[in-house]
Amino acid sequence: MKLSEFIKDIIRDFLIIFASIMIIITVLRQIYIPELAFDLISIYTIMGFSLLGALTGIIWYTPHEISERAMRVRIVVHFLTLEILLIALASLIGVVTGVPGALLLALQIAVVYAVVRVLSYGKDKKEAEQINERLKAVKQEIHD
Amino acid sequence: MFVYSENQVHEVKQKLYELEELCRDKNCFRASKSTILNIAKIASVHPSLSGRFTALLDNGERVVISRQYVPALKQRLGL
To answer: Chain B partners of A132 at a C-beta cutoff of 8 Å?
Structure first.
């Protein structure tokens, strides 16, 4: 992937993450604490961490082809970076206080990360099955 | 740059993007930054845990298909 395309992806990811967080928080506040107003510092904090979250995408960037093993190492690095960022954000805005809370959040992040990976793998598997079916048909056409 | 045929390996002077252009009307597609594959020589495609795809070729060799080039393969296959 070209660097310019990669930067576009990072910006797109930042906007998606920021918009998603804002929408979710707005809806939850509307339901549970409608009297509480958004303050500017909270919005800037969420904006900052959305940008940091999107910037973790840099871990995936590579100008050259890399091995499967190197890709798996990057997955681990990406996961650990997200864990640190999200726990830091939660501590900063006061959602998590103390070690047990941080450990519970770390576990929740790990579960969500694993679920996303498994779902993504399942989607890829279906896509590969479709491709393989078409490959068989194309090869058959070529041989006939 | 090397071209792998059934029994031989040929060194060619063209750059990969030039070969890509030359092979546009054949059964070939860009599979990664460094590879062009002949669709007719792919036995099957498998997903990997890293989010990429691996093509198993008729000669038993495995080649990575980058995620960004999967849509191109699907388009070539009419999917």
So the answer is: 44-45
A120 interface with B at CB cutoff 8 Å: yes
Q: Establish, for the pair of chains A and B, how many residue pairs have beta carbons separated by less than 8 Å.
A: 62
By CA distance, what is B58's nearest residue in A? Answer: A139
Rounded to an integer, what distance in angstroms lies between the CA atom of residue B44 and that of residue B31?
14
Residue A48 host element (H or E): helix A40-55
| pTM recorded for the entire structure | 0.74
Contact with chain B for residue A127, Cβ under 8 A? yes
Give the mean pLDDT of A92-101. 86
DSSP letter for each residue of B32-76: ETTEEEEGGGEEEEEE-TTS-EEEEETTS-EEEE-GGGHHHHHHH
Q: How many residues does chain B have?
A: 79
* Amino acid at site A70: A
Q: Does ipTM surpass 0.90 in this model? A: no
- The domain locations on chain B are 2-76
